[in-house]
Amino acid sequence: MININQLARAKDPIEMCEHEVLFSVLLFVFVGLTACGQSHKTQSAPKNGIQQGQFWEVKIEPSKATVKNDETFSVRATIGNTGKLEQMLIFTACGYPNQWKTDNAFVHVQAANCLMNPLARINVKAAGVYQMTVPVYVEFQPGAIKQDAITFRMGYANGVPSIAEMRVPDSQLFWSNAVTVSVTK
What we know:
single chain, Immunoglobulin-like, 12 strands, 34% strand, 2 domains, 23% helix, alpha+beta, 185 residues
């Protein structure tokens, strides 16, 4: 091993440069591995199909307890950051049907009419929440047995411009609690 005094007395500048480069590379690798180890510790393995490194909890509440078939009503969606760090929600301003999905074939997210559909980015602090209103409607298909009540959940795809186009599997959506609305004819 070469000590500092030997480097200072080195007659060959190339030898000294090689040691400095070696030291720099080792320092860079050490810092990089330390940083990777730190970030890996803050991100746990996927839980309930949630994307690794993202900690979101979705809660929904319909604006009405009773709706008519084919009537649009609002669902208040609260997206909470359950992680220890600030996270970013990324959604398209008019992309509700593209980023939200329901788990009931009779409940649909209402399409939005927009000329432009820019991405919106919202920073949500740890333990913070973001609320949005999502328009939905119940539609029984012709010939389907009409039900008096419908139970559904809503899944949100963070940062995905279109669930259908990107073929986002249900396991990577952030699913809400289940809610029930009564349906009149």
